[in-house]
Amino acid sequence: MELLKPSTANSPPLTPLGFLDRAATVYGDCPAVIYNSTTYTWSQTHHRCLQLASSLVSFGIRRGHVVSVFAPNIPAMYELHFAVPFAGAILNNINTRLDARTVSVILRHSESKLVFVDCASRALVLEAISLLLPNSQRPVLILITDDTVEPSSSSITDDFPDTYEGLVEKGDPGFQWIRPNTEWDPMILNYTSGTTSSPKGVVHCHRGAFMITIDSLVDWAVPKQPIYLWTLPMFHANGWSYPWGIAAVGGTNVCVRKFDAGIVFGLIERHGVTHMCGAPVVLNMLTNSPNNKPLRNPVQILTAGAPPPAAILFRTESLGFVVSHGYGLTETGGLMVSCAWKPRWNRLPATERARLKARQGVRTIGMAEMDVLDPESGLSVKRDGSTMGEVVLRGGCVMLGYLKDPEGTSKCFKNGWFYTGDVGVMHPDGYLEIKDRSKDVIISGGENLSSVEVESILYTHPSINEAAVVARPDEYWGETPCAFVSLKSGIEEKPTEKEVIEYCRANMPHYMVPKTVVFKDELPKTSTGKIQKFVLRNIAKNMGTTQKNKSRL
Amino acid sequence: MELLKPSTANSPPLTPLGFLDRAATVYGDCPAVIYNSTTYTWSQTHHRCLQLASSLVSFGIRRGHVVSVFAPNIPAMYELHFAVPFAGAILNNINTRLDARTVSVILRHSESKLVFVDCASRALVLEAISLLLPNSQRPVLILITDDTVEPSSSSITDDFPDTYEGLVEKGDPGFQWIRPNTEWDPMILNYTSGTTSSPKGVVHCHRGAFMITIDSLVDWAVPKQPIYLWTLPMFHANGWSYPWGIAAVGGTNVCVRKFDAGIVFGLIERHGVTHMCGAPVVLNMLTNSPNNKPLRNPVQILTAGAPPPAAILFRTESLGFVVSHGYGLTETGGLMVSCAWKPRWNRLPATERARLKARQGVRTIGMAEMDVLDPESGLSVKRDGSTMGEVVLRGGCVMLGYLKDPEGTSKCFKNGWFYTGDVGVMHPDGYLEIKDRSKDVIISGGENLSSVEVESILYTHPSINEAAVVARPDEYWGETPCAFVSLKSGIEEKPTEKEVIEYCRANMPHYMVPKTVVFKDELPKTSTGKIQKFVLRNIAKNMGTTQKNKSRL
């Protein structure tokens, strides 16, 4: 037995890139990408990606170079998920909601050689470039034109020596794409949006991208040829791996430049959408939209990115969406924990179903192990649904590490685990529930208190649109919960702080009830739509300590 | 980038074994295995496998030991796919249709430490043991009792120191299963049935088993919780990986001891079967059975193992089966080429659809590459659907190699490819069609002639049940096709040799028409149901050379 070793024939590097070759063979004449009035077949998409990759090589892009993209969910963005690694390069999607300063930090840190820039973001990227240090190398900028945004934007300027379509046209459709030397070669560089700190460059290898892609297909039971609507930004952890996944199953990618509930409902009807993804905030926007309407056919919607309040899950399902809920981080390239649904739960009342579905769930089949560890002892916490600990993971889709940050990398890789920084509990049935980011836990009178739990109850209040709860320093308790809320539009009688607190008292243990409620027109968000708790935490801190308060109990 | 290397957290060994832990968590109270009146839930199956594994360890089984199984598709057979590797050992399924001599060869060659023996095969295995050389180590025999076969077989004898259920009962359900040290550790040892030569021991590692399992799930688009009927023997390339696959999706395994068309139709109805697999001979038996009846609900049936004649495909589909067709070898652990169906083919006439579906198809997404190479130049053959060459593969599910056979291993691993020994053509649309095993090609007048092609036309003859075509030496042409056929039962007027030849003349190019037709009550088969062409080839050879014959044209 010892003589039998892996060989070239049985250990070719795992990579999702070959999915596109196969899609062109099997689904060549089927629609691959639809955007407004443009449709590309899988055969066309395949050719376009090879052409673009060959042009990148002509531009001097080499194995291991970083190529950045600054664009929304348009066809170019989809194609670059294949074209950039086809050229041997590393794909770096940049969040289009970032400011120029952060973009310049990313360009400098990644040493990006070339940036594809959507025409709507030209000014911002130019500003970012102007902020680069004088001794930094300036990346080549390539303009992605879009007639629906700027009908006459095809002209080449000094800043943009070529356009995306120019590169496609010049390229060779017979280009032999550059295979990775090993499956551990880097393929993806994603900067975390950073709810708390400066962006970190998360590096994924070809094997990791392959693993998360097929794992996500099996876990969501994606059938052949789904119609997939791109409501989740591809710059957000590569759209949870579905750019590669949809090629694997020969589906149709319906692209959309901007999220708008009315447009989404229109596209669902027009193209017969079967699948889509989005953070809970997307579910919230869909259900709160005046344009919402019950779906003709069920649409599978996969949500993750934050624990979804049960009330939102419930409202989404009543429109006809079939909600699946999972959990992942930029560091895992997609969802590797999901709330696998048990058939018998269908017999439970709707609110109970929503409560169960709001849990993050169990590891997917590609993820080797998951646990919740006590921060002190490092041992598994009790499976009691209430003892909190840090969520740790081990599996093939966990990142290689953070770019140029050995300290950050070694901090989260300990004892053979990846430490997520998320705080959760393990229920008796083996399902994980995230309670908070470790830094978001409120410690009041020595008790750990999950801000997310308080928020999920605030979301059930009929007038509240969004809610975030953070710690406010307290003389007696150490910290107390402080709630920031925004109200739904069109509310006639706005609730008072006292009324909200009373609502909480009626619906949660007293020690969890916010001592302070602050009304805001809108809560501050990160570029990926997550509420910026560190901003709110600073506000709460500056409000001063709350007074000694013995009324608790 | 160079600093980022795989670590324990992101490179745990790939293995399908963890699927069972997960199934117990998610589908714990759902049926996992059904056999006659016995049903085990996933939770029970999980416990039983852990108990058995712990008993194996108590028996002295260690990492890397070989444990053999000699059983049909009964619950024990299913459980051993997890229990044996849970103990760190290598699972060796032995084909129950083999004779005692071959079984003894396998036991000696594999150095098997322990053999689980189905009660119905007790005598045969004891005979095999008696044939072992005096200096061979004798494996421990464990009896698998079955009340439906031998109501009083539970007694322990000298030959069988324990029973399967005894081991389960004694075992520890809290046993921590033994994880592989690396994903390249051997997990499976399957002996090829050998249509031509003595059995070879095909070794697969944990990674290979993981790859073929998830790949097979995605390729067949298996949904969650299918009802899977075990018509394909698990000893046949581990049932094409579905023992692990059905655990991954939490399905139900309906076990059946013996293939019988009437029983199969009954089980489909009784359990609401959704999925099953089988060689074309199984399809043939289903459609030719007097008990066949149109299905109430469509059943997915996956076929492979031999190129299925279009006529059989057609008849199977008219009963309501949805036939998928793939291609694999024991050396690939399952199917890694499949005839991915194009939606527009549904609009074609039924015979044309069947012709297309009889092709083997394209690589699955987990298989990195597939090609057909010219034996002389080693280059890809023309994609013209007629130039024959050898099928080669490269991918993560290709075996590690043959046990104790470095020569055989290096013979099939050349230039980074695995050489299948199968002869095929590549169609212009990129779909592979197998024409023959290389040794089955008939060379007549310098022309390569596919025996399978002649057979597929013979199968369309209304009176012919089975057909096999081999080369018969010919003075003038070198070789000519010689057909061996068996007729359907109940045929009133049996066709003559002349009539069959005339039928062929009307339906195929003249140079392909058999010069000889031999009628047989039954064609000789291997233990996996494949026709033994080498037996027929010997018969044809002994018939003497056919006479000079210029009538060809």
Structural description of this entry:
The structure is a homodimer of 553-residue chains. Chain A is an alpha/beta fold and 553 residues long. Chain A has a domain at 441-542: GMP Synthetase, Chain A, domain 3. Chain A is 30% helix and 25% strand. Chain A has 17 helices and 27 strands. A nine-stranded mixed sheet of chain A has the order 2-1-11-10-12-13-14-15-16, with helices on both faces. In chain A, strands 4-3-5-6-7 form a five-stranded parallel sheet. In chain A, helix 2 crosses helix 6, helix 7 packs across helix 9 (242-248) and helix 12 crosses helix 13. The longest helix of chain A has 17 residues, at 42-58. The radius of gyration of chain A is 24 Å and the shape is globular. Chain A starts with 17 loop residues before the first helix and ends in an 11-residue tail after the last helix. Residues 548-553 of chain A have low confidence and may be disordered. At the A-B interface, helix 1, helix 7, strand 16 and strand 18 of A face helix 1, helix 7, strand 16 and strand 18 of B.
